[in-house]
Design brief:
α1 (about 5-55) packs across α13 (about 280-310), α3 (about 85-120) runs antiparallel to α10 (about 230-245) and α4 (about 120-135) crosses α7. The protein contains 13 helices and 2 strands, in the order αββαααααααααααα. It is an all-alpha fold and about 300 residues long. Strands 1-2 form a two-stranded antiparallel ribbon. The longest helix is centred in the N-terminal third of the chain and has 53 residues, at about 5-55. It starts with a helix and ends with a helix. The protein has helices at about 5-55, 75-80, 85-120, 120-135, 135-145, 155-160, 175-200, 205-215, 220-230, 230-245, 250-255, 270-275, 280-310, and strands at about 60, 70.
Length: about 300
């Protein structure tokens, strides 16, 4: 091999080496940029989840520090299914979910259709319905707490004028405390659902309705045969997100009733809070958290499978 060929080979190897060095530098720079996010996810998500799973098999009094952690196996999971307060909170959570999700979605769909087709100043109504959703939940709870006041509240004053001498005590009554919170939750969340449904209605071509009108389809037939089927993806999205959110309700319960009276409005997340930060049973609270995770995951999976089967 002559000198020129050797020189060319050396240049080629040098170029390749320079290329791979640049590649490594770029990869290293990329990993350095990703490192803060990766470390944040590791310490703020992965580690807490793993530690919570470990604690669910332990008995740990938070006051005693890490040294008081004691492994007890499945005792926490056995105890939770024998705990009447946990079973009551599950029952209340199911009642809350069954009423807030379907009723809220039905009302929001009806209002969205009316606003989309028959109402002037649509932008005003969108904002008016959306304001409660973006408002502080504490502010919303304070307003409704005043409305629900047993003697001075406008609601009971109105009922008394209608001739009802002994109106409900609402938040202070074991029978009405949970329904009162359900009403607030529906009212506060309906604006978000309306906005989502309006976005879905905007994507439906007007030609479809015009063709249906030419064929003689009434407004009711168009709603059930065109609007609802074409809104199936939107409805599925809302149903799954609202279902998950209904099992995580905490703020309204904590602010308005603190789970009372007599645990009549206690839900699962509030029970977790009580066991962990009032009774200092972090192991038991972690086990309840994983019960909540299992319920939400199972319900979401069933809903997702059912919806995919329906679409196919």
């Amino acid at each position: 091999m002559n000198e020129s060929s050797k020189g060319a080979a050396r240049l080629t190897r040098a170029g390749e080496q320079s290329f791979w060095n640049n590649e490594r530098k770029e990869a290293l720079a990329g990993w350095l940029f990703l490192a803060p996010e990766f470390l944040g996810m590791l310490f703020l998500y992965v580690f807490p989840v793993g530690f919570s799973l470990y604690l669910s098999f332990c008995d740990w009094n938070l006051v005693g520090g890490l040294a008081s952690i004691k492994f007890i196996g499945l005792d926490n999971f056995v105890a939770m299914f024998e705990d009447k307060k946990v079973l009551l909170s599950l029952k209340n959570n199911l009642i809350y979910t069954v009423f807030t999700v379907p009723i809220g979605m039905a009302l929001s769909l009806l209002l969205a259709v009316v606003i989309h087709t028959r109402v002037f100043f649509q932008s005003y109504f969108k904002v008016a319905f959306f304001i409660p959703y973006i408002s502080s939940i504490i502010a919303v709870g304070a307003v409704w707490s005043a409305l629900y006041h047993p003697s001075q509240g406008p609601i009971n004053q109105f009922l008394i004028r209608l001739g009802i001498s002994d109106p409900p005590k609402w938040l202070a009554d074991t029978t009405y405390s949970l329904p009162s919170i359900i009403i607030i939750a529906i009212w506060a969340g309906i604006g978000y659902q309306i906005i989502i449904y309006l976005a879905g209605l905007t994507n439906i071509p007007d030609d479809v309705y015009e063709a249906a009108s030419i064929d003689g389809a009434s407004s009711t037939q168009q709603f059930f045969k065109i609007t609802m089927p074409l809104l199936t993806p939107t409805t599925s999205f809302l149903f799954i997100t609202l279902l998950i959110g209904s099992f995580k309700v905490f703020d309204l319960v904590a602010f308005l009733t603190a789970g009372g009276p007599n645990d009549s409005s206690t839900v699962l997340v509030y029970r977790i809070f009580e066991e962990g930060f009032r009774n200092y049973k972090m192991g038991y609270a972690s086990a309840l958290s994983w019960l909540l995770f299992a319920i939400v995951g199972l319900v979401t999976l069933i809903t997702w499978k059912f919806q995919n089967k329906k679409e196919i």
